[in-house]
Design goal:
It is a single chain. It is built from nine helices and six strands, in the order ααααββαααβαββαβ. With 226 residues, the protein is α+β, with helices and mostly antiparallel strands. The chain has two domains: 145 residues, no CATH class; 72 residues, ACT domain (Alpha-Beta Plaits), CATH 3.30.70. It has a four-stranded antiparallel sheet, covered by helices on one side. It has a two-stranded antiparallel sheet with strand order 1-2. The longest helix has 24 residues. The N and C termini lie far apart (61 Å).
Length: 226
Amino acid sequence: MPFLSAVAALSWPHVLLRLAVAAGLGGAIGFERELRERQAGLRTHLVVSLGAALFTLVSAYAFRNFGNKVDPTRIAAQIVSGIGFLGAGAIIRQGFSVRGLTTAATLWLVAAIGMASGAGYYDGAFIATLGALFTLGPLRILAYRVIRRYRIELDRLLVEIPAGGSPAPLLEAVERQGSRVVSLEIEQEGDRRSVAMLIELLGAAAPAIVAGVAEIDGVLEVRWTE
């Protein structure tokens, strides 16, 4: 059996070590995602990292008996493109916002960590894991505190009006409060029309905007989300 004789070049303790390191490092990043209640958490990141490590082991050792007739990098190379399908499933669009980009990136990263672990490049795997945890934790908090001082305040106003209703009065009510509508999205659901507005406050108070829009005839519901 060519497979068994080829893998014998790497002892079982070394195989177990590499897979365990991949699972542990991938699970560490997945645990952080799990704490933040993201779509892909501990189990997903752990399995992706473990799978990438196993693919790397198979690519490096399973076909050694074939000599130069087989490129040992072909299987590992497909991990990079293949993980993109899984990452795309973690990205969700909700109105004006897109969620899951960071989780998709961490899935892509744990695949690389799994490959590094499977190849025995532990230094790179550990450094990448520490860098990811720092980026997702302390750096995230620091960046939020710094950027919020210079970022334009944009908030989301959701308004329900009857089907066929015009959003023009809503825009006028927002502008009367001294704010500006950056973008507008309209969805029709049965006998209701949902209008989502992304608003730049420009010093205006959110309660005043909500009150002004609620006074418009025909408005069924008003919700303010930050």
